[in-house]
Design goal:
2 strands; about 35% helix; about 60 residues; 2 helices; alpha+beta
């Protein structure tokens, strides 16, 4: 697991921006559900996560 990713999620969770986060059953990935008012905020939360692969960025 990426320590910067965990730190990022913990900080967002403390700010009330994480609804849920879980590893997949095979532990090869996971899912984070953010709380955001606008799509731009959700996009920013996702793409600024240090563990998000550049190939999943929304343009």
């Amino acid at each position: 697991m990426c320590p910067l990713h965990i730190e990022y999620l913990d900080e967002r969770d403390q700010k009330g921006k994480v609804f849920e986060s879980r590893l997949f059953a095979d532990s090869l990935g996971g899912l984070v559900v953010y709380i955001a008012v606008k799509i731009e905020e959700a996009h920013s939360l996702a793409v600024n996560d240090p563990h998000v692969a550049p190939s999943v960025y929304m343009n």
